[in-house]
């Protein structure tokens, strides 16, 4: 089922990421923070459907989506052309990323716009969680970091929230390289911690394998679940 929404406002988060606030008429979006909706539109006579995570809290007539524009993308380019007052059809909010246990310690690991479900989950955990939450964000440069000020304020106002940024293409005072390689160094223990991972498929698969090698049980690692197939498809295309 789809719902017609109106673009209430558009905010530039980074040079290539825009945040869209979409408002529906006579519909309340109920979901778990971290889950995603789908944007539906037609291009060249065919329907295009793409998933984007709602970063706002549930229980309102609004969805807030942060979308990075890719020059060769279809949906991201289309969305970045939307302006205030335009209509956008969206689907139900669902998905596998949401906090399972607010009494457990949690670690959120993200790259790129994979940060969007983490933003929603971290905000919910800061309000409801009884353990500790550690957010690990990987990006190329500081300019690419999404919601940095929001996360900094959240960590400053909540003793149980920590944030670690890792940059791959810029020298700075913080960690560099791949975000997943710094998770073990920053956490006192991996035991009894639930891990939520989202971002570039290769990072998700690599992080999952690293955690398993460190003895983390499968039932404590949560992803959307499609990343293995994406990496396998890319490997097959490379061989051909």
Automatic annotation (TrEMBL):
Single GO MF descriptor: oxidoreductase activity
SUPFAM superfamilies in the cross-refs: Ferredoxin reductase-like, C-terminal NADP-linked domain, Riboflavin synthase domain-like
Domain FAD-binding FR-type: 1-100
Pfam families assigned: FAD_binding_6, NAD_binding_1
UniProt region (Disordered), positions on chain: 219-240
Biased composition (Acidic residues): 225-240
Protein name from the UniProt record: Hmp protein
Record-linked PANTHER family: NADH OXIDOREDUCTASE HCR, PROTEIN RFBI
């Amino acid at each position: 089922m789809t719902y017609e929404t109106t673009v209430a406002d558009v905010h530039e988060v980074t040079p290539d990421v825009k945040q869209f606030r979409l408002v529906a008429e006579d519909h309340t979006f109920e979901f778990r923070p971290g889950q995603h909706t789908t944007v539906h539109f037609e291009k060249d006579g065919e329907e295009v459907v793409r998933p984007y995570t709602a970063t706002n809290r549930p229980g309102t007539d609004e969805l807030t989506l942060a979308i990075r524009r890719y020059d060769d993308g279809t949906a991201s380019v289309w969305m970045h052309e939307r302006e205030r007052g335009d209509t956008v059809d969206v689907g139900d909010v669902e998905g596998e990323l949401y906090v399972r246990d607010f009494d457990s310690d949690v670690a959120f690991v993200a790259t790129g716009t994979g940060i969007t479900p983490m933003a929603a989950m971290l905000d919910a955990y800061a309000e409801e969680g009884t353990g500790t939450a550690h957010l690990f964000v990987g990006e190329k440069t500081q300019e690419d970091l999404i919601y940095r000020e929001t996360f900094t304020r959240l960590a400053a106002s909540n003793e149980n929230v920590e944030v670690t940024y890792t940059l791959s293409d810029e020298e700075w005072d913080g960690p560099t390289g791949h975000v997943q390689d710094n998770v073990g160094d920053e956490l006192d223990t991996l035991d009894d911690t639930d891990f939520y991972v989202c971002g570039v498929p290769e990072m998700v698969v690599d992080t999952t394998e690293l955690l398993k090698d460190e003895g983390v049980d499968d039932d404590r690692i949560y992803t959307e679940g499609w990343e293995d197939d994406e990496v396998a498809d890319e490997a097959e295309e490379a061989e051909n």
